[in-house]
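// run 5 | inverse folding | seed 20
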């Protein structure tokens, strides 16, 4: 530890609450302290690190007295990995805090008068729920303090397969078990690591941009109980590298029969994004999932919600909130691959999906055709464009609009369009209640927020989805 850090003051703090981004909060001497890996009720010892305007960042040193709500995390990497930061909080409390964060975003910060605020919809599974895991190979393995201090020889420090350390793009935590992916994923992860090590293959070095192995992606279908595995590498050069690819494509699926699709992709770019040009395919070049009786073909790098079991409840709740009718015309803005559009199509006359990402629109069209859904049409449009109003005026005016934007929320040009259109109902879905509340405040002169429904798609994290029902105020036409 550096002398500079040692000189920082050490304090005892009582944790009072949790901020939206998952950091615990304590107050002392008119200052706010942010503490990682603590929960309300904990008495903690911290080192004050950086003072900012109105708050102080800290390093947790010790739990002096644990909160009565604190539980032992299941994961041995807790606190190092950076994911699942709420594993120390029992699940019912997680649900209550997620509801509170949604409520605070709208009523306390957004100053919006809301109708009903429902309890958070719990996930059917709180472990082994993720249908997609993205692992990285790395040439710089993260060394834990006990490993460094042990005095023992450190092995394999130039090879890791696991997850990025928060804030360190170049460091990979080598893991052999992740409790939020299907159990078979851990067996596959360890088998791939052992094979790569036995063949003395190199991992990608993020700073030097050298090395062969880059990413391993696992996608799982809950409905069909099968897997897609994607190996991303630099272009193979040596015989060993080519042999490893052959093993991955031919022999790994035989060892794990649930693997329905094995894909090798090449990424020779400097981009750290886990994608590449598909080189080889064993089996199908897609995986299938069924949501509310609609079967989705999911291509290797396309977006799909990562909690399939909860997605059925989530989409069902969105559709129930909308109170769809057979004579309705509906728009779905930021439709993605049609995860709302296609299940909703069965309950309406027409539904139009709009999305900027062309590959998502192509997937949506493919899935509409595959499911013989003829009343759902998809269009590639930039919903943030200045002329978006002109581009959409050719379509039949909707009776209801679904909106599911990225975390940043809606663009001012789209908000302006919505205020001009004055659609009778909007169902606004968001993974970021803060920007959702901000947008609803912008619309509050003509829309009332009738209800809020938090949904837990990501157990053991602070992330929460929220469904807001907006209705045009009485007297506005």
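// decoded
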């Amino acid at each position: 530890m550096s002398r500079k850090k040692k000189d920082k003051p050490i304090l005892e703090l009582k944790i009072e609450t949790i901020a939206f981004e998952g950091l615990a909060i304590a107050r002392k001497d008119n200052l706010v302290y942010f503490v990682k890996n603590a929960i309300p009720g904990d008495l903690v010892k911290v080192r004050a690190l950086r003072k900012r305007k109105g708050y102080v960042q800290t390093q947790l040193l010790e739990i002096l007295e644990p909160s009565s709500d604190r539980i032992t995390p299941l994961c041995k990497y807790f606190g190092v990995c950076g994911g699942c930061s709420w594993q120390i909080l029992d699940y019912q409390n997680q649900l209550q805090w997620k509801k509170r964060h949604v409520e605070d975003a709208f009523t306390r910060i957004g100053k919006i008068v809301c109708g009903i605020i429902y309890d958070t919809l719990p996930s059917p599974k709180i472990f082994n729920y993720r249908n997609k895991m993205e692992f990285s190979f790395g040439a710089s393995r993260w060394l834990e303090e006990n490993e460094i201090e042990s005095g023992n020889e450190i092995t394999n420090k130039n090879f890791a397969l696991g997850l990025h350390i928060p804030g360190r793009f170049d460091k990979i935590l080598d893991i052999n078990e992740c409790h939020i992916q299907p159990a078979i994923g851990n067996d596959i992860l360890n088998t791939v690591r052992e094979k790569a090590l036995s063949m003395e293959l190199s991992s990608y070095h993020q700073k030097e941009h050298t090395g062969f192995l880059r990413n391993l992606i696992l996608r799982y279908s809950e409905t069909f109980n099968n897997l897609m595995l994607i190996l991303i590498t630099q272009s193979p050069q040596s015989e060993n590298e080519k042999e490893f690819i052959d093993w991955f494509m031919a022999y790994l699926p035989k060892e794990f029969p649930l693997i329905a699709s094995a894909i090798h992709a090449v990424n020779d770019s400097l981009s750290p994004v886990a994608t590449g040009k598909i080189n080889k395919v064993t089996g199908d070049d897609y995986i299938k999932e069924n949501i509310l009786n609609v079967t989705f073909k999911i291509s290797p790098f396309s977006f799909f919600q990562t909690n399939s079991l909860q997605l059925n409840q989530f989409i069902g709740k969105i559709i129930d909130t909308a109170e769809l009718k057979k004579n309705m015309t509906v728009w779905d803005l930021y439709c993605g691959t049609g995860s709302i559009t296609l299940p909703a199509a069965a309950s309406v006359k027409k539904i139009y999906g709009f999305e900027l990402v062309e590959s998502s629109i192509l997937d949506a069209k493919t899935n509409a055709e595959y499911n013989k859904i003829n009343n759902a049409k998809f269009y590639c449009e930039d919903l943030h464009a200045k002329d978006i109003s002109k581009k959409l005026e050719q379509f039949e005016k909707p009776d209801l609009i679904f909106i599911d934007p990225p975390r940043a929320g809606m663009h001012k040009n789209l908000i302006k369009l919505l205020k001009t259109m004055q659609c009778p109902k909007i169902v606004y879905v968001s993974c970021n209640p803060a920007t959702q509340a901000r947008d609803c405040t912008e619309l509050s002169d003509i829309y009332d927020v009738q209800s809020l429904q938090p949904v837990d798609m990501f157990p053991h994290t602070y992330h929460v989805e929220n469904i807001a029902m907006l209705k045009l105020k009485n007297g506005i036409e």
